Amino acid sequence: MALALPLAIAATTPLRAQDDAPAPGLHARLSGPILSDSVADATAPTVFTGLLSIANNPPADKSGNGYWPCFTGGSDTDCSSIPKGAIVVGEPLSAAVVSHVCSGCAQIYWIVESTTAAKSGDVKISISVKQGSTSIFTFSGDSGTTLPPGQIGAFWYSGVTFNSSAKAGEATITVTSTVGTVKSTASTTILLK
Length: 193
Fold this sequence. Notes:
Blueprint: E1 7-10, E2 25-33, E3 47-56, E4 70-71, E5 87-90, E6 95-98, E7 103-114, E8 121-131, E9 134-147, E10 151-161, E11 169-179, E12 182-192
Parallel strand pairs: 1-5, 6-12
Antiparallel strand pairs: 2-10, 3-7, 4-5, 7-10, 8-9, 8-11, 11-12
């Protein structure tokens, strides 16, 4: 399957909790139909997860929503002036920018994409951040969003707080997105300072 998704990266300030940040917790936004979709055979995966990273909590716009993630060229006022075909996300902060004593200071974000061969389904999310076998952040729950076939959804958890077991060093973020009965999992490694 060949899919193209241009990525616009939004510049951010140094990682910190922001007084004007949107409410913590799990959020989702759908983009509409994907730009290309070519499924090779009936056994190919129908749901994919990508762009997994951690970033600064976005500031809130005048409606109280985070400025990013947002899809370009649509009705979302935060991204409507950017030509269609991209997603704006926080600057990925993988290399020792996030503190291991982060308390509500970060946003984990990712996209979930379904092919036109996928079945529509409610999206359930499981997030874990581990250092070795020690969990330092977990979340599991329903996104409250249905992902139709041939669509891209941006998902993010704002207000990440690591528990007291966290320490400076390598950590792995793993996200599993279950659309109906189909699971897609992605992982990435970050360094905590």
